[in-house]
Predict the 3D structure of the following.
Amino acid sequence: MKLVAYLRVSTIEQSQKGYGLDIQRSAIRAWAKDAGHQVVLWCSDEGISGALAAEDRPGLTEALTALRMHTASALVVRDLDRLARSVTVQEAVLLEVWRREDAHVFTVYGEVLRDDPDDPMRTAMRQVAGVFAELDRRLIVKRLRDGRKAKTKAGGHANGRYPYGYGPSGPIAEEQDALRLMRDLRATGATTYAIAEALTAGGHPTKRPPSTWSSASVSRILTRQAAA
């Protein structure tokens, strides 16, 4: 069977063992070889939260498009938490794949079976696992937030590098303007692609070169804002 493989690691997970894109790629490649499948396309999102919807993840959007275009017959991820760290996003993506009656979803532990009205426990168990993946993400964010608060209370700068919108002397006016635009556009339902284009067109400064905004950088900033 022809597969499209999806890899993802969030900004938080990049520094943790076991989450790297290379590790995910190796696990999927070994499983596909043993199972007699062929990976025809590799898609990835690096530094992007699993709580974001598919349209805000370039790699996942590419993978789902490949399935819709019949480039592949199945989607494979190392674990379902690579697909999503939010149960609502997980279920939405699975339903999108399963719109094709002949499409499948795999992890390296086997096939993620479609919902069956005669087996409600199948759906329940999958969703419970998704709830715990979401809880794990929230606990990680809370620990980091608590650490930042403790460091700030002790008189240090909590984030190492200053987050977008701030510098050594406090808020940066131009970057604060960009943050407001991001939040306003997001509130209207704009995708991170559209927000990035608007920021670039408006000449809003990035934190570091290049000066052109990307969907990934917008996603990271909005994710940090939500966590804060």
